[in-house]
Amino acid sequence: MIRWLLLLTLVLAAPLQAAIDIYQFDTTDQQDRFHRLTEELRCPKCQNQSIADSDAQIARDMRDRTASMIREGHSDQEVVDFFVTRYGDFVSYRPPVNERTAILWMGPLGLMLIGVLAIVMLVRRASRSAELEEDDRT
C-alpha cells in the first residue's frame, strides 16, 4: 500500500517540477556577472520578481539574451541599457534619477512627509480637545 502511495505521489508531482535553465559560461566571472545581472533586472510581466526568479516566458527570453550578451563580451551596463531601451526604466531595480523617474525617488519621501504632517495634526487636535475638556470641567 505504501509503495502505491509513493508511486502515486511521484506521478502526480512530476508535472509540478519547474524547468531549470542551465547556462554554460567560459569563466566563473561570466557566471557571476550573469547571476548578478539577472537579480538586478526586473521581469516586465511579473513586476515584483527579478528575471532570475520569474518563470514567465519573457523572463526566460531575457535570461537567454543576457547570457548570450555576456558570452559576446558586452559589459554589464550595455546589457542593462539593452533591456532599458526595450522595456523602459522600470526593468531596472535601480532606475536612474531623471525627470521621468523623479516620482520613484521622491514619492516615498513625499508620502513620509504627509504621514508625519498627519500625525502632528492629529496630536495637536487631541491636545486641544483635552485642553477644552479640562477647561469645561473647571
Automatic annotation (TrEMBL):
Belongs to the CcmH/CycL/Ccl2/NrfF family. It comes from the Bacteria. The keyword Iron applies. The chain crosses the membrane at residues 102-123. The keyword Chaperone does not apply. It comes from Alloalcanivorax gelatiniphagus. Possible subunit of a heme lyase. Keywords: Cytochrome c-type biogenesis, Heme, Iron, Membrane, Metal-binding, Signal, Transmembrane, Transmembrane helix. Residues 7-132 form the CcmH/CycL/Ccl2/NrfF N-terminal domain. Residues 1-18 form the signal peptide. PANTHER family: CYTOCHROME C-TYPE BIOGENESIS PROTEIN CCMH. This is Cytochrome c-type biogenesis protein. It holds the Pfam family CcmH. Coiled coil: none annotated.
